[in-house]
Amino acid sequence: MVIKGIPVSEGIGLGRAVVIKESEYTIKKTKIENTGAELRRFLDSIEKAKEQIRKIKAATQESLGEKNAMIFDAHLLILDDPEFVNMVRGKIEEGINAEFAIDESARFFENMLLSLEDEYMRERANDIKDVALRLIKILNGEKQIDLKNLPEDSILIVHDLTPSQTAQINKQNVRGFVTEKGGKTSHTAIIARTYEIPAVVGVEDIINKIKDGDFLIVDGYEGFVYVNPEEDLIKEYEKKIVEENKRKEELKSFLYVESKTQDGKRIKLFANIAHIEEIDAALKNGAEGIGLFRTEFLFMDRSQPPSEDEQFEVYKTVLEKMEGKPVIIRTLDVGGDKNISYLNIDKEENPFLGYRAIRLCLGNKELFKTQLRALLRASIYGKLKMMFPMITCIDEVYQVKWIIQEAKEELKKENIPFSQNIEIGIMIETPAAAVISDILAKEADFFSIGTNDLIQYTLAIDRTNDKVSYLYNPLHPAVLRLIKMTVENAHKRGIEVGVCGEIASNQEFVPVLIGLGIDELSLNPSKILNVKKKILQTRFEEENLRVKELLNWQ
């Protein structure tokens, strides 16, 4: 049997299925006479749940790092959330048993989150469910599932891998994850990539299709799950694993080789990261710096924005870990497909064309300035570069610089030190920015081209829409001309241009970017050595001629 799902973590896993089935609960509504005692029972379960979660958080922090442990802060916030607690309390005071009151209240908040368009926020409904299930199990005297002692070569089959389950997993014994729920931003996907374990998610009814002990092949590249495959297919995939390991070993030989083409064109290779824990992978793969640190994940999974001190500690840690290598930190980029509840962003007809990224930051000056102050304070601990997303006009750059200056003046008055040599960068993500890149280059120290959005906006194509995604073409002459224009305008002013979109790691497009004159590529840490190998095999002059043909230029 072959099952298709969504591949979210690359690799191939062979092993035996371990099917995790949650207890089926039929939570009955019971009339309670002594509501005071039932309320105490509920409040006691909250305290026990907090104790469990704190222990799980500590274990997660030790094995996965602070950032991945922060998700349990969200669980603790749910247990302290007055809206959730008071809704349950109100139902109990009406004479309803605690289990039913918790389940009904949790479903209300789950449905509210699931109704949102933002995939990331929909995934957070699982946190509510996880917390509610924990409370109900405590009330029923049932122990949590223990995943610490899994057999070797296990492939976990679950409805959805919860954060609390993940914290208990012995990753040495797990060869793959397969879940019924989830997407590319789900907790399972994030953890699988962090662990470097193959994962396929979104496989309908997988728990009932697979039995404990079934032999499985999990293809994290293509999204296939093979159940009790023929011996020939097993041998084929065993060969692929050998080849995969051989490729990884071969790539290690490029680790200390300078990244330049055969005819001497130097291309810097940086890493895209979103979490502190990814820095080790970036350095292990030879990243020359961080080309994109996505700060929006600091603002998610919480009921209020991170404080200046909290942000400062994160930025400081990144800079210290990179030991003087350049670190480009992008300011808050939310809106569009990334919404945050406490910012109260109105629902928009076209969110990608609306109140997002730098527009949102300029409209929330104090939120923006808090981030800028944290960045400035951290700047003395390394080579910080600030980058601003979704710039479309020069006035936005002037406003950004004015607020930076205000933040600097405040810090001076408070005798708080900061670096005087922070480079300011602009993301080129819209046709407008590319067309006026000659003007923007006068006010920037570097450009970074966000090709994901640039292609989408240039071609008027939503690549997540199956009906038009076939038109999403990174080699479209219009896209290439905008990139070429940006590079030429930047080089005239003596500033460098990087690419931090997905095409920076695509073997097909890397030579084209080299031919267009790009100075730097920033990509997923695991892709750096693959791309370096491609660069070493490429000749700049040949690709430059090829680009002229693609552009239809003479």
TrEMBL record:
Mind telling me which Gene3D superfamilies this protein's record contains? Phosphoenolpyruvate-binding domains, Phosphohistidine domain, PtsI, HPr-binding domain
The residues covered by the Phosphotransferase system enzyme I N-terminal domain are 4-124
Positions annotated to bind phosphoenolpyruvate: R294, R330, N452, D453, R463
Any single GO BP term: phosphoenolpyruvate-dependent sugar phosphotransferase system
Q: Which sites bind Mg(2+)?
A: E429, D453
Q: Which UniProt keywords apply?
A: Coiled coil, Cytoplasm, Kinase, Magnesium, Metal-binding, Phosphotransferase system, Pyruvate, Sugar transport, Transferase, Transport
Provide the cofactor list for this protein: Mg(2+)
What is catalysed by this protein?
A: L-histidyl-[protein] + phosphoenolpyruvate = N(pros)-phospho-L-histidyl-[protein] + pyruvate
- Residue span(s) of domain PEP-utilising enzyme C-terminal: 249-538
Q: Name one matching Pfam family.
A: PEP-utilizers_C
Per the UniProt record, which EC number(s) apply here? Answer: 2.7.3.9
Q: Where is the PEP-utilising enzyme mobile domain?
A: 151-223
Quote the catalytic residue positions.
Answer: H187, C500
InterPro entries named among the record's database cross-references: PEP-util_enz_mobile_dom (IPR008279), PEP-utilizing_PTS_enzyme (IPR050499), PEP_util_AS (IPR018274), PEP_util_C (IPR000121), PEP_util_CS (IPR023151), Phosphohistidine_dom_sf (IPR036637), PTS_EI (IPR024692), PTS_EI-like (IPR006318)
Coiled-coil-forming residues are 32-66
GO CC terms, sorted: cytoplasm
Q: Where are the transmembrane segments?
A: none
Molecular functions per Gene Ontology: kinase activity; metal ion binding; phosphoenolpyruvate-protein phosphotransferase activity
Family, similarity comment: Belongs to the PEP-utilizing enzyme family.
Q: What does it do?
A: General (non sugar-specific) component of the phosphoenolpyruvate-dependent sugar phosphotransferase system (sugar PTS). This major carbohydrate active-transport system catalyzes the phosphorylation of incoming sugar substrates concomitantly with their translocation across the cell membrane. Enzyme I transfers the phosphoryl group from phosphoenolpyruvate (PEP) to the phosphoryl carrier protein (HPr).
Q: What is this protein called?
A: Phosphoenolpyruvate-protein phosphotransferase
What is the scientific name of the source organism? Caldicellulosiruptor kronotskyensis (strain DSM 18902 / VKM B-2412 / 2002)
